[in-house]
What we know:
Number of strands: 17
Distance between the termini: 13 Å
Bound molecules: (2S)-amino(hydroxy)ethanoic acid, manganese (II) ion
Shape: elongated
Order of helices and strands: HHEEHEEEHEHHHEHEEEHEEEHEEHEHEH
CATH superfamily of the largest domain: Zn peptidases
Structural class: alpha+beta
CATH architecture of the largest domain: 3-Layer(aba) Sandwich
CATH topology of the largest domain: Aminopeptidase
CATH class of the largest domain: Alpha Beta
Number of helices: 13
Amino acid sequence: MPLGDFRNNHLGLKINWRRLEDRINALAEISPIDGGGNCRLALTDEDKDGRDLVVSWMRSLDLEVTIDVVGNIIGVWNVGSGAPVMSGSHIDTVRTGGRFDGCYGVLAALEVIESCKDANISPPRPLAVGIFTDEEGSRFAPDMLGSLVYVGGMPVEQALNVVAIDGARLGDELMRIGYSGPAPCPGVVPHAFVELHIEQGPMLEANDVRIGAVTSVQGISWQEVTVIGQSNHAGTTPMSLRHDPAYVAAEITVFLRKLASEFGGDQVCTVGKIDIHPNLTNVVPAKATLTLDVRNTDESLLKQAESRIAVFLTEIAAKEGVKITSRQLARFEPVIFDDEVINIVESIAKQQGNTVQRMPSGAGHDAQMLARICPSGMIFVPSVKGISHNPAEFTESIDLEAGANILLHTMLSLTTLDKSTT
Ligand code: HGY
Ligand code: MN
Ligand code: MN
């Protein structure tokens, strides 16, 4: 596979790891939580502070910074000509996030540009860094919301009217933090897109491999299930007369676990959020609201899982005399990345002396949205003990540095990616 001509002239180019490490640590200083992680839910003041810091670094590199109508931030180094090669990720976090999830990819992409500038080389195409709004989807569903709107997968108005788990409206929060921008969505179509990210799972560590050349992202189905029962006195109400949403929520949680075990393979099911009302010791609850996160690499199996869940909800509603409604929060089919981009990642990883394997992504990523509009791919580095969405999330410096050097050469190689011949 011929690597980009341009890249071949700069094989020795490396990123400045100390500078990248300093920026990762500086961003992690914004809204730190116990255990070394961060809480910067999308469009909160903490997210704004993180955005302001990274935008200041973009401006110090003289990038052309644009903010779009859903707060996506795109910094472009305007060299060469034509559509940019873009990298990037997110800097919003889950409530108990680690310091690398998303942030590593954004800051490594910034480091790629700064390393090229330090070396006085100018690629034949512009290089761009994207910070996509609300990748986590924890506050405003769905996840990858910003990049979904960026590629035209969700109408802007619909996105602006999304209501958060705390009742805020997305458009209002964008205005409040000063990131409701003028740039339109869909945004500029990149020549190619590549995202560097921690694996957030156990596979690379288990296989003692340093780099993942990511082939795909599994399908994602999120739904919010509301169970309406009858609140009653915890002491006087006989068990046979109860319509108890908390009990039903527990049964749904157990059903999902059993479904995942029955399907086996890549099937995963999670009930991550349960709200009980009125949430008091001596009251049989009136209502339970829970979220179902169901994923599989195989779309037909994911559909089967969704159908089995729908049947179970109907049956248990009848059995327990409760009313159950369900609202889809996210639904993305599995995404396959571009073959040539995967080949480039894999060959550069090998050329730079790393062990590398091809693998799917269990987590959703902005790259799965960019794959709708341009050749896209991802680079993974290992997560220690496979832990993520947890302040204990950690990746060794030697792996972080290796990943960033692969990103550097992958982006340079993509500047001469020619898909016209395929
Ligand atoms: O949900 C996900 O997989 C990602 O962390 N947003
Ligand atoms: Mn992420
Ligand atoms: Mn995440």
